[in-house]
Design a protein that fits this description.
The relative contact order is 0.07. This protein has three domains: about 5-220, no CATH class; about 235-340 and about 355-400, Dna Ligase, domain 1; about 410-490, no CATH class. The protein contains 15 helices and 23 strands. The protein is α+β, with helices and mostly antiparallel strands. It starts with a strand and ends with a strand. Strands 5-6-1-7-8 form a five-stranded mixed β-sheet.
């Protein structure tokens, strides 16, 4: 099923320049080459329209705030919105002026049908930008025309027959390809798309060119559509400027905005990350000091906002009081492909590994990463050197496992520091009792390249008269060595 959702952003130019302009300057517009490009709803009520000259806008609304358009900022904002919406479909393209087209036909079954997908996508878009209009149709151009309808509202059409009925009633001015010919079309009494379709096709193509007829046919599903898809950046790095904020709750609110953008980026790439790198900027300009850096390591790769924010709250509380902040950046140095859980026909109860990892992250955030450690295998055959202690969260690095030289039953339950043993007629003696050898020898040795030098031992399982078993060894060297107790069996 071919289905498109198109999102139009009528105030994108203002949103890119001043994100909170609705509260500070509700009567505003942007200028592009001396003409109005974007205007607020309050300016529209006073008669200001895109395409008007600067003087005309000032005559209609003397108190209007006019800002020079920043095409780079507007394009960057549109790309950020597109990257956030790629969690629903990878096929997102720029369509028309300040609009996005999403090919959602392949995503319908994943999101339980068009209605659920429509509501979910609009909810996500509303969290990214406050004002937009949307249209759903079997064609991208048709969805764009529905999104640009006046008065602004969200319109849907799932079948070409329904789409044709809705498009026929729209004014011809909604079709962007018809903009250069509006005067001529009005002069011949052609004001709607239905009337435009009824014009002789050969004469229309000779007068207006193939672009107008091609755009019209694409809207009605009578011609193919081709779009270059937008691609998400390879790594996430986002910076926001803020007013000077000092309170922890205000800083956490700004961090939450960045984390939510990160989670949308991870969702679009089906990825997860284990490391967050934040920087808090305290001054602006060339003379600004170094920012405060915060690196958060998690016990496992995550992609949900709640998991990140819970730990960031703990870390920020440990840093409190933090100097006043004027900007915050968030980046991730690496990410991993998210592993999909295996689906079983019959559900089984299993201890939640995620709950254990969340507890580990929480302990590290409260106690500090240096106070919570885990054992990681090391490349040594000697038992006391076969592991090393590293921070419990973050990347542990590569640590090869020793070769499987013995069954688990051959290893003691309790490993001790080597205790010298006595000897009687060559047999080991512990606490006055002679030990009888049951199994062995098992030779374990370290390499000559280690810092302690080459060491070779023969291990035995021994037992005393009370049937208590011990793990003992003796050195193999020129002096014959002695006996040592290294572990106890349960």
């Amino acid at each position: 099923m071919s289905l498109w959702i198109c999102l139009a952003f009528p105030t994108l130019g203002l949103d890119a320049l001043i994100p909170g302009w609705r509260n500070s300057i509700p009567l505003a517009a942007t200028l592009r080459k001396g003409q109005i490009d974007t205007c607020s709803a309050q300016a529209r009520r006073l008669g200001v329209r895109p395409g008007q000259r600067r003087g005309t806008a000032l005559a209609l609304a003397p108190e209007i705030t006019l800002l020079e358009d920043d095409s780079a900022a507007r394009s960057a904002l549109l790309r950020r919105i597109a990257a956030s919406l790629q969690q629903y479909t990878p096929n997102v393209a720029a369509c028309g002026h300040d609009a996005l087209a999403l090919d959602v036909g392949a995503s319908l079954s994943l999101f339980h049908g068009p209605r659920t997908l429509w509501r979910t996508l609009l909810r996500t878009t509303r969290s990214l930008i406050p004002r937009f209009t949307a249209g759903m149709a079997p064609t991208a151009q048709g969805a764009l025309l529905l999104a640009l309808c006046e008065p602004p509202r969200h319109r849907r059409a799932l079948r070409l027959e329904t789409l044709a009925r809705l498009l026929d009633a729209l004014p011809v001015s909604n079709l962007q390809a018809a903009a250069p010919y509006l005067g001529w079309l009005e002069g011949i009494g052609c004001t709607t798309l239905e009337q435009l379709r009824k014009l002789p096709r050969k004469g229309l193509r000779q007068r207006a060119g193939a672009e107008l007829t091609g755009s019209l046919d694409a809207a009605y599903g009578q011609a193919p559509e081709f779009f270059p898809w937008l691609e998400a950046p390879d790594l996430f790095c986002r910076h926001i400027e803020t007013d000077r904020i000092e309170h922890l709750h205000a800083i956490l609110a700004a961090v939450t905005q960045l984390v939510e953008a990160l989670c949308l980026w991870l969702q679009a790439r089906n990825a997860a990350t284990q490391t967050l790198e934040l920087r808090f900027f305290h001054e602006r300009g060339r003379g600004a000091g170094a920012p405060t850096a915060l690196t958060v390591e998690l016990a496992r790769p995550c992609w949900q906002a709640d998991e990140f924010l819970h730990l960031l709250d703990e870390h920020l509380r440990r840093m409190d009081p933090l100097p006043s902040v004027v900007g915050i950046s968030l980046a991730i140095p690496r990410f991993d492909t998210r592993l999909q859980p295996e689906a079983n026909l019959f559900p089984e109860f299993r201890p939640s590994h995620d709950e254990d990892q969340r507890l580990l992250d929480l302990l590290c955030a409260r106690l500090g990463p240096d106070h919570v450690r885990r054992a990681v295998p090391a490349a040594s055959y000697l038992p006391e050197k076969a592991n090393r202690w590293l921070p419990a969260t973050g990347q542990a690095g590569y640590a090869p496992h020793p070769a499987p030289i013995a069954t688990p039953e051959a290893r003691p339950f309790w490993l001790l520091a080597p205790i010298p043993l006595g000897s009687s007629s060559g047999r080991p003696v512990y606490k006055g009792a002679e030990l009888h050898l049951l199994r062995g020898p098992e030779r374990l040795a370290s390499g000559w390249w280690t810092s302690a030098g080459h060491e070779c031992r023969d291990y035995f399982i021994a037992q005393d008269e009370r049937a208590i078993r011990y793990w003992i060894y003796r050195h193999i060297d020129s002096s014959g060595g002695g006996w040592f107790l290294h572990g106890l069996y349960g």
